[in-house]
C-alpha cells in the first residue's frame, strides 16, 4: 500500500523574493502540489464530488522548517510520506531536496495535517471518516523513513 509519493518541479522566477530565493510561502504551495499528486496516484482528488454530500480534505495544520535556500531554476524534489493515518485525518511529512544543480541537498521539511470532511448543502462542514476505498489504499510510512525533528513521530 502506498505511503509515499514524489514529484519534482523547477523553481520559477515568480517563486522567488527580492533576495533571489524561494519565498517561504511557496513551500506550502509545493506541499499542496505533491499531496494532489499523491491523491491522483490513488485514483482520487482532494475534492471528491462523487460522494453525496461531497467530501474534501482541508488543512488543519501546516508547518515548514527551512534549512537551505532554493533559488531560481533549481530542480526540487518533493517527497511526501504518510506520517500518521487516523479514521478522519492524515498527517504528511514532506521533504524538499534540491536535486539540480548538485550536489543533492535537503533544503526543508514540512508537515501537513488534513481532515476528511463532508459539506452539507446548507454549507457547514463536518469531519467524517476517510472513505474506506481510499483509506484501504493508504498506509503509514515505516518509522525509519520519518524525520523525528520535523514532527514525524
Largest sheet: 5 strands, antiparallel
Shape: globular
Which H/E pattern describes the elements? EHEEEEEEEEH
Give the integer mean of the pLDDT values.
93
The CATH class designation is: Alpha Beta
CATH architecture: Roll
Number of strands: 9
Q: Given the helix and strand composition, which structural class is it?
A: mainly beta
Count of separate structural domains: 1
Number of helices: 2
Distance between the termini: 20 Å
* SS strand fraction: 35-45%
**Quick one: CATH superfamily?**
Hotdog Thioesterase
In spatial order, strands of the major sheet run 1-5-6-7-4
In the CATH hierarchy, the third-tier topology is known as Thiol Ester Dehydrase, Chain A
Any low-confidence stretches, pLDDT <50, length ≥5?
149-153
Rg calc: 16 Å
Explain how this protein is built.
This protein has 153 residues and is mostly beta strands. The protein has one domain (4-142): Thiol Ester Dehydrase, Chain A. Helices cover 13% and strands 39% of the residues. The chain contains two helices and nine strands. It has helices at 26-41, 132-135; strands at residues 4-10, 47-48, 55-56, 59-66, 75-85, 89-100, 105-115, 117-119, 125-127. The protein has a five-stranded antiparallel beta sheet, with helices on one face. It is globular and about 45 Å long. It starts with a strand and ends in an 18-residue tail after the last helix. Mean pLDDT is 93; it is low at 149-153.
Amino acid at each position: 500500500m502506498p505511503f509515499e509519493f514524489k514529484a519534482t518541479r523547477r523553481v520559477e522566477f515568480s517563486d522567488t523574493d527580492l533576495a533571489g530565493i524561494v519565498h517561504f510561502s511557496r513551500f506550502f504551495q509545493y506541499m499542496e502540489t505533491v499531496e494532489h499528486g499523491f491523491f491522483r496516484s490513488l485514483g482520487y482528488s482532494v475534492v471528491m464530488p462523487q460522494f453525496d454530500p461531497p467530501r474534501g480534505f482541508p488543512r488543519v495544520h501546516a508547518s515548514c522548517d527551512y534549512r537551505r535556500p532554493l533559488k531560481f531554476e533549481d530542480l526540487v524534489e518533493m517527497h511526501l510520506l504518510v506520517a500518521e493515518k487516523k479514521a478522519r485525518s492524515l498527517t504528511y511529512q514532506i521533504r524538499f531536496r534540491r536535486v539540480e544543480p548538485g550536489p543533492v541537498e535537503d533544503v526543508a521539511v514540512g508537515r501537513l495535517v488534513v481532515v476528511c470532511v463532508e459539506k452539507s448543502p446548507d454549507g457547514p462542514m463536518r469531519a467524517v471518516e476517510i472513505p474506506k476505498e481510499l483509506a484501504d489504499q493508504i498506509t503509514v510510512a515505516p518509522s525509519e523513513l520519518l524525520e523525528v525533528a520535523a514532527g514525524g513521530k
